Amino acid sequence: MRPGTGLFPEALERLITQFAALPGVGTKSAQRMAFRVLDYTPERAEAFANAITDAKALIRRCGVCQNLTDGETCSVCASERRDRGLICVVADIRDLYAIERARNYGGVYHVLHGVISPMRRIAAEDIAIAPLVERVKAGGVTEVILALNPDTEGEATAMYISRLLTPLGVKVTRLATGLPAGGNVEFADDATIFRALQERILIYPYT
C-alpha cells in the first residue's frame, strides 16, 4: 500500500510520505522507518526532530571552499596542516568525503555543487565556478586538481574550468588512471582514489 492511501492514521501517513520522498527509499522501507520512529521515547523522538531542524538551520556553505559547515569556514579550510596552494575541485560534497577517506590528500577543496549540463539547464553561472576563479586570482595557488566524474558533463566542466584557470598561471590537472570512463568519484574505493590522485595529469585546454 502506498503512502497517502488512508490505510494508516493521517499523522503516520505524513511521516511515511516524508521518508518515502528520500532518495533510494521505497514505500516499504519508509513504513519500517516510520514505525521505528513510533517506538521512540518522546525524548528520543524530539532529539530526532531537532537534529533535522538544527541541520537545516545551522548548516551552510563554507565561505572559502563551499564545503558544508556550521561556522564561517569548514574544518578543512580552518586546518593549519593543509596545503592551501593545492585545491582539489569536486562536483559534490560526497566526492570530497570519498577523497578524504583515501587519506593521502593534504590540500584544500572547492565544491562546485554541480556540473555544467545543458540537458538539465545547468550553466556555468549556476555552480560555484566564479568563487574558484576568485580564489586562484587572489594568489598562492600553485595547482588545481579537477576531481570530476569522467563522464560527458564532468569532462565538459573540467575543460571549461581549465580554460579559465590556465591563463592565470596555475597548473591545472585532473585525476588520471583508476577512474573508469562513466564512473563516479563517490563510489570509487580508497585504493582507486589513491592511484588516481597519484597519477593525475596536466590538462591542456582547447585553443
What does this 3D model show about the protein?
This protein is an alpha/beta fold. It folds into two domains: 10-58, Orthogonal Bundle (Helicase, Ruva Protein, domain 3); 65-202, Dna Topoisomerase Vi A Subunit, Chain: A, domain 2 (3-Layer(aba) Sandwich), CATH 3.40.1360. It is 42% helix and 13% strand. It is built from eight helices and seven strands. It has helices at residues 10-20, 27-38, 42-58, 75-78, 93-102, 129-137, 152-165, 190-198; strands spanning 60-61, 68-69, 83-90, 107-111, 143-146, 171-174, 201-202. It has a five-stranded mixed beta sheet. Helix 1 (10-20) crosses helix 2 (27-38) and helix 5 (93-102) packs across helix 8. The longest helix is centred in the first third of the chain and has 17 residues, at 42-58.
Structural class: alpha/beta
Strand order of the largest sheet: 4-3-5-6-7
Give the topology string: H per helix, E per strand: HHHEEHEHEHEHEHE
Q: Can you tell me the CATH class of the largest domain?
A: Alpha Beta
Largest beta-sheet characterization: 5 strands, mixed
Q: According to CATH, what is the topology of the largest domain?
A: Dna Topoisomerase Vi A Subunit, Chain: A, domain 2
Q: Cα-atom Rg, whole angstroms?
A: 21 Å
Mean pLDDT figure: 89
Label the CATH architecture of the largest domain.
Answer: 3-Layer(aba) Sandwich
What amount of the residues lies in strands?
5-15%
